[in-house]
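Q: Here's a chain of 173 amino acids. Please give me its 3D structure as tokens.
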Amino acid sequence: MRPLEIPIPTDEERQILEEVYQSTRDIRLHMRLQMVFLAVEHHFSAAAIASIVRSSEETVRRWLKRWMAEGIEGLKDRPGGGAPAKITSAYEELLLASVRLRPRSLGQPYSLWTLRRLADYMAEQTGIRVTYETVRLILQRGDIVLSRPQHTISSPDPEYKVKKRRSKRHATG
């Protein structure tokens, strides 16, 4: 392959390269800047740089070409990749509004929400199926925590508490 003809950066461009190199915490950007410095300051070939940074010659060439075309911005990772997000702000708003209502008022056959029930309900309403952990994280961002229900036994009998205490004493005594 023929060697890349790397343009000599101006003093201002060198200063910017140096500042970004010294200040970045992005290890990938740091390594790409090293590639540029090795090419510009030491006139190393792509093959020599590849052996130093433990990368392929093709990868080094690609980053040097992007730097020549776009400057430092070309060395940064481009956004993207992965599947598009399932969750929309409308989904989150509906979830937060639903969890604040009693399930029975929304036509559900139970009286308390659980994460799984919320995930199922939201899938029915929106067609978007997410895990109950995703539901928990959305609720957490909305400062809502579902706790386990506390089951209590009560009675309309005015003497219920007295009778309950009396039965506990007899059970332990």
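Q: Can you summarize the key feature?
A: DSSP finds eight helices and no strands in the chain.
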